[in-house]
Amino acid sequence: MWGTVSDALNFYKRSPGNESGSRRAVGTAVLKERIPEKVDPNNLPFVSISRPLADSLEVKEGDLLYLSDRRWWLGGLKSTHALSGGIVEDYTEPAVEMGENSYQLVISPKRRKYRIIIEKLY
User: Fold this and answer.
1) Hey, is 78 helix, strand or coil?
2) For position 49, what pLDDT does the model report?
3) From the CB of residue 33, how many other CB atoms can be counted at a distance below 10 Å?
4) What whole-number distance in Å separates Cα of residue 78 and Cα of residue 68?
5) What is the pLDDT of residue 23?
6) How far is CA 13 from CA 2, 40, 52, 54, in A?
7) C-alpha 69 chain-centroid distance
8) What is the pLDDT of residues 28-55, one digit of tens each?
């Protein structure tokens, strides 16, 4: 299939995207079991984000996110891609509610109290 970067983003995300710089923030990862783990067709997990995080990153439902440990030397080993599944009003600071599988990909057992990097892609 031939097309533009925008076409590829639309195919991957199933929503329009643009090739621009990404936005980053630091926030708390919260384990929530009520979040659906997968969404078709790309099997990306859903996460819910706090209102302060959504405002700082300008995230809306369906946006592609990259969640990672703050230790740069891991080279992305403790990270995952996810889709924004909605905004939660329960938090006063940046936070991400994640399902168990996503949480285990990003959070090491000894680092549960440390914050993670949340990046909005495209």
Assistant:
1) coil
2) 95
3) 9
4) 6
5) 84
6) 17, 10, 23, 18
7) 12
8) 999 987 666 556 567 788 899 999 999 9
Q: What is the pTM for the complete model shown?
A: 0.83
The neighbour count for residue 32, using CB atoms within 10 Å, is 16
Tokens of 27: 């926030």
Enumerate the β-bridge partners of residue 48. 86, 97
Token match 């080993």: residue? 77
What is residue 118's three-state secondary structure? strand
Element containing residue 67 per DSSP (H, E): strand 64-69
Q: Which H helix or E strand runs over 74?
A: none
HEC string for 5-50:
HHHHHHHHHCCCCCCCCCEEEEEEEEECCCCCCCECCCCECEEEEE
Omega cis (within 30) before 94: no
Task: Give 58-113 pLDDT, tens digit per residue.
Answer: 998 888 899 999 998 998 899 999 999 889 999 999 999 999 989 999 999 999 99
Contacts of residue 44, Cβ cutoff 8 Å, sequence gap at least 6:
38, 64, 81, 82, 83
